[in-house]
């Protein structure tokens, strides 16, 4: 049984089975078409009966939290936009199956020859995908003027002093009693002017 589902979320199962000589290759796709290419490639592998040579297809993603319209939304962010990973035994048949899949532009490698990446690199990518703490993504910048929309300082204006994307926090300099005071707030508590 092979694992040919396009992997977005790492699975808690052992590594996909493989044959001697199977290596991980990086395949370049049209940006934004990674999932579609992975699905198309999976179908081609099955119809061309290459499941004994192409074992795993991974679209490297991770969960992030974005703040839009005052609400937190969890989304999947592609770690390497325009690239997917394929574990396969490289020969003429598998090269042709992957290379002629709609949306694939090329294998990554020197010249026309696909260059495999090491298992260590793949393992590092998988660990990065599994990182528990979602990363916050914001559109704020340091020194930007913002309005506080929630909490005890609601309706105050301030200037962003620091941004902590990891924690989803922002430090805003607010003028209180004639002096600038730093106030730490959640991304949800401020809005752009």
Biggest β-sheet strands, sense, barrel: 5 strands, antiparallel
Distance between the ends: 55 Å
CA-based gyration radius = 23 Å
Taking all residues together, what is the mean pLDDT? 84
- Extract low-pLDDT stretches: 5-15
Oligomer: single chain
- DSSP strand count: 15
Give the helix proportion (percent range): 10-25%
Which descriptor suits the 3D outline? elongated
How many helical elements? 3
Q: Strand percentage, roughly? A: 35-45%
How would you portray this structure in words?
With 193 residues, this protein is α+β, with helices and mostly antiparallel strands. The chain is 18% helix and 40% strand. It is built from three helices and 15 strands. Strands 1, 2, 5, 6 and 9 form a five-stranded antiparallel beta sheet that branches. Strands 14-13-12-11-15 form a five-stranded antiparallel beta sheet, with no helix packed on it. The protein has a three-stranded mixed beta sheet with strand order 4-3-10. Strand 11 and strand 12 (157-164) form a beta hairpin. The relative contact order is 0.17. The model is unreliable at 5-15 (pLDDT under 50).
Feature tags:
15 strands; alpha+beta; elongated; five-stranded antiparallel β-sheet; 18% helix; 3 helices; 193 residues
Give the helix/strand layout.
Blueprint: E1 23-29, H1 34-47, E2 54-58, E3 61-68, E4 71-78, E5 83-88, H2 92-99, E6 104-107, E7 109-110, E8 113-114, E9 116-117, H3 119-130, E10 135-137, E11 145-148, E12 157-164, E13 169-176, E14 179-186, E15 190-192
Parallel strand pairs: 3-10
Antiparallel strand pairs: 1-5, 1-6, 1-9, 2-5, 3-4, 7-8, 11-12, 11-15, 12-13, 13-14
């Amino acid at each position: 049984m092979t694992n040919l589902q396009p992997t977005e979320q790492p699975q808690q199962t052992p590594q996909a089975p493989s044959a001697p000589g199977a290596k991980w290759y990086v395949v370049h796709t049209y940006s934004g078409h990674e999932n579609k290419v992975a699905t198309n490639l999976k179908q081609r592998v099955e119809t061309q009966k290459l499941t004994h040579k192409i074992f795993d297809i991974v679209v490297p993603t991770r969960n992030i939290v974005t703040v839009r319209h005052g609400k937190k939304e969890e989304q999947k962010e592609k770690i390497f936009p325009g690239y997917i990973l394929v574990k396969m035994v490289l020969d003429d048949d598998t090269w042709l199956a992957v290379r002629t899949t709609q949306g694939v532009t090329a294998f990554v490698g020197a010249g026309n020859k696909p260059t495999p990446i090491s298992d260590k690199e793949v393992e590092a990518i998988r660990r990065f995908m599994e990182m528990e703490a979602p990363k916050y993504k914001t559109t704020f910048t340091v020194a930007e003027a913002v309005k506080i929309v929630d909490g005890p300082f609601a309706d105050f204006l301030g200037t962003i002093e620091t941004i902590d994307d990891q924690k989803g926090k922002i430090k805003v300099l607010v003028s209180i009693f004639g002096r600038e005071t730093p106030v730490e707030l959640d991304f949800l508590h401020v809005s752009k002017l």
